[in-house]
Structures are given as C-alpha cells and as structure tokens.
Write a structure and sequence with these properties.
5-stranded parallel sheet, 381 residues, globular, single chain, 44% helix, Rossmann fold, 2 domains, 13% strand, alpha/beta
Length: 381
C-alpha cells in the first residue's frame, strides 16, 4: 500500500521584500503548517534572508491545488497590488513602473505574474482558481483598519476578499471594530511575532548590547523632519547616557534607508559628539531580533520592532504611526507610543524607568498568540 500524500499549504505574505516583520512571519508560520510553499505578489529570490525562493501566488494557485491557503500579517485590507508593487520591485523595474501609463503598468504587472492593480495585494480570490475550489482561506495577525479611509468602491471590493476567508484573526481593536461595523466576523489576538521569545535560534548579540536602538522609516523622517528628529534622539542619548544603534527594519522602497542613517550619524556627531553611534549592517531577521533583545531600549516607527521589544521585555517607545499605536493601545499600553519629536527624550527616560517587562507582558502576549494560532492550525491544517 502506498503512503498517504502529505498535506500542502500555500503561505502568502509580503515575503518578496526585505521587511523585518514580514520575514519573521514566514519563519514562524512555515514551522507550523504542513508542506509549506512561500508565495507572494511576485517571484523573488529571498534565499539570502530566509532560505526561500518566493513564488507568485497567482501562478501557484493556477497550476496546482493546496489543502490550505494561509495569509499572515500586514495591512492586508488596504494594500492594493499597485501600492505593493511600488514597494517590492527591483530598482530598474521600479523606474519603468514610475514612468509607465496605466496600460503600461498593467502590462508590467501581468509580466510579473501579479494580480489586477486594484485588487488586494495579498488576499487572493480563491473562487477565481478552479483548483482552489473549497480550499480553506485563513487570515492571521492582520490589520484592516486602514480600509476606513479608502474610496467606497475600492473599499467594498477589498473588504469582500477579507469577508470570504474561513477564519480572520486581527491584531488590534481598531481592525476588529471596523470589521464588526462591516458585518465581517473576526477574532482578536496578539501578533504571531510575539512568539519570537521562544525561538531558540534568536542569537545573543553583544556588539550593540545596552544601547538605545533607533529605527525611523524614510516616510516618517520626511513627515516629521529628519534634522529635528535626530537632534531629539541626541538629547535622549545625552539624558540617558546610552549609545545609539541605528537599526533598519526593512530596506524595501520607502521603508528604511542606510543613506538616511549616514546623514543621521553626521547630525548626531555634531549634536552629541560624546555619544557612540553605530549602524547594524545585518539583514537576517533573526539577527535583528537579537539586536533588539540585547538593547537597553527600543525607539522606532516599526510595528514589529515594538512587538519584538515587548516579547523580550525591552523598554520601548513607538513613534507616531497609526497601525503601531492601534496595536500598542490594544496589547501594550504600559509603554509609550505615539511619540512626537519633542516627546522623544522624556519618553525614552520614562520607558527606561518602567524597566521593560515587570508585568510579564511579553510572556502573556506570546502565550495568547500561540494559543490563537494553534487553534487555527488545529481547525484547518
């Protein structure tokens, strides 16, 4: 008698680009599901960061069947294909993309194997694929509150994708409230990345230990003013006596930039010449977790920087960012969030005074996230 065929899972997420949280989602999810295939909007060679070659999910769904389709993480509701491609394309393709008219962009997305430009970037319409008929679709650790401000026609189409899922687990109360208002059932649970605290392969990183780890995206710096922000960081470093470690949570387009960190080093050297400033060059997401784990404090605009800091009980301050504030308000309100530029020095001092995890936040959230995801796996895999 022949053996039973192993079950297979298609894992869909923003795995085609260098972004800290998305790559952690892949690492954490593929260990939980049978026969995982990593898929995304377009093909990408991510072997250097995750050991995986990522395939376009449209191609995979068209050519073979799966027992489960699992989407994890991100603002899946409001992220369209057009928006996501702008983040994910290599430089040469992005230049052609920027110069193209709508018809040209549509040709390029078809060449790349991506869905329609207005469709949800990472939530497939399984009904469009004959081989996916009846396949369960699970959305885990997602945010959808960004759909509130979307133009109604587009919002309704994107919302329909979420509503079609067999299970939806959201990561913040704002997302759940929006889905409730829209008549879509969901459950609320902490982000899956909270479980990083139990990974034995997160390294101990001594190089940047005991410093103020700072991350700021290109978009955040453009919004608040880079010079003002880095001068505020310099003041925080002076007040606390900490060195500064500059941390890139992602190098995809409009995420973080090592060029902007070069400018930061210059400004910090002028404003606080006695403060030691370093830059983390590593891109392995587990090494980056080790950097956060060893920090004296975290300061940043990244959601998953905050999540990892909370997991390891590191004092943390989040900058103004709607999705980060929504998550912190839901699960981690004891540490500062929504910090403006003038707030930064006092907020860092306050976070250090709170000593990170005296209330057991990291352990509690990890247990809740694991229980929630375990129930999804038991139900569908």
């Amino acid at each position: 008698m022949g053996g039973m065929t192993e079950k297979t899972s298609l894992l869909i997420g923003a795995y085609e680009r260098d972004n800290f949280g998305d790559l952690l989602f892949l690492r954490l999810t593929e260990d939980l599901l049978p026969g995982p295939t990593a898929a995304s909007l377009i093909a990408a060679d991510m072997r250097e960061l995750t050991g995986r070659y990522v395939v376009p999910y449209e191609t995979e769904l068209a050519r073979r069947s799966f027992d489960l389709v699992w989407v994890v993480g991100g603002e899946v509701g409001a992220t369209t294909t057009e928006l996501a491609l702008g983040f994910s394309m290599p430089e040469a393709e992005r230049e052609a993309w920027s110069a193209a008219d709508p018809a040209g962009r549509d040709r390029l997305r078809r060449l790349l194997g991506a869905p329609d430009l207005d469709s949800s970037a990472y939530v497939p319409d399984l009904g469009a694929y004959p081989l996916a008929s009846g396949t369960p679709l699970v959305l885990n650790s997602v945010g959808v509150a960004g759909l509130r401000g979307t133009e109604p026609r587009r919002r309704d189409a994107l919302l329909a994708r979420v509503a079609a899922a067999d299970d939806v687990v959201v990561r913040d109360r704002d997302s759940q409230a929006f889905l409730d208002e829209s008549g879509v059932r969901s459950r609320l649970a902490p982000d899956l990345v909270q479980t990083i605290v139990d990974r034995p392969d997160v390294p101990t990183v001594e190089t940047w230990a005991g410093t103020l780890v700072v991350q700021a995206s290109v978009r955040h710096l453009a919004k608040v003013g880079a010079t003002a922000f880095w001068l505020s960081v310099a003041e925080a470093a002076r007040r606390t006596g900490l060195g500064v470690t500059l941390f890139a949570a992602g190098t995809a387009h409009l995420h973080d930039s090592y060029d902007s960190y070069d400018e930061a080093r210059r400004l910090l050297a002028e404003a606080a010449p006695d403060v030691d400033v370093q830059v983390v060059p590593d891109r392995d997401p587990l090494v980056l977790c080790g950097v956060v784990r060893s920090a004296a404090a975290w300061l940043g605009s990244s959601l998953h920087g905050r999540v990892v800091a909370s997991a390891f009980g590191v004092p943390r301050v989040s900058l103004e960012n709607a999705k980060v504030s929504a998550y912190a308000a839901t699960w981690d309100a004891g540490m500062p969030f929504g910090a403006t530029v003038p707030d930064v020095p006092a907020a860092v001092e306050a976070a250090l005074g709170l000593r990170g995890d005296d209330d057991g936040t990291g352990r509690r959230l990890a247990d809740q996230a694991r229980e929630s995801t375990g129930a999804l796996v038991a139900a569908h895999a």
